[in-house]
Specification:
This protein is mainly alpha-helical. The protein is built from 5 helices and no strands.
């Protein structure tokens, strides 16, 4: 249902932005606020995952149907690399500059990648579609 309400890409981007805002607010929140932020982060993560895996299938003019599993696998690999790289960076930032800086880093990273997803989607669709249609 998360990909049906607003569409896959707007739902994905809205969830990423909401998650990033929750990360940015963590240093300013008390105990109950952090619990609410954690619930928002978890819900937004689930809400973003559904459209995340459906986007390659919705790009019929750009991605051939036989390449959809490969596209989803590549997307999951990129997410896994981020999941392996960001926590050590968070730890390093927290130990050098404090937790407020580390949580702010998480929020900024989330907003940056939401913007990157928006730009990459529109640029990639325009650049690749003519080559696919031409058989090359």
């Amino acid at each position: 249902m998360t990909d049906r309400a607003l569409g896959a890409v707007p739902t994905f981007l809205a969830a990423l932005v909401l998650e990033a805002i929750a990360f940015l607010l963590i240093p300013c929140l008390g105990l109950y606020g952090v619990e609410i932020a954690a619930a928002i982060i978890g819900t937004a993560g689930i809400a973003a995952f559904v459209p995340f895996v459906t986007i390659p299938g919705q790009q019929g003019s750009v991605v051939h149907i036989s390449a959809i599993p490969t596209a989803v696998g590549l997307m999951l690999t990129i997410a896994a690399v981020g999941g392996a790289v960001v926590p050590p960076l968070f730890s390093r930032i927290a130990s050098d500059f404090g937790f407020q800086a580390a949580w702010s880093f998480e929020g900024v990273i989330g907003l940056d990648f939401a913007c990157l997803a928006l730009v990459a989607r529109s640029t990639r669709a325009v650049a690749v579609a003519p080559a696919i249609r031409a058989g090359g």
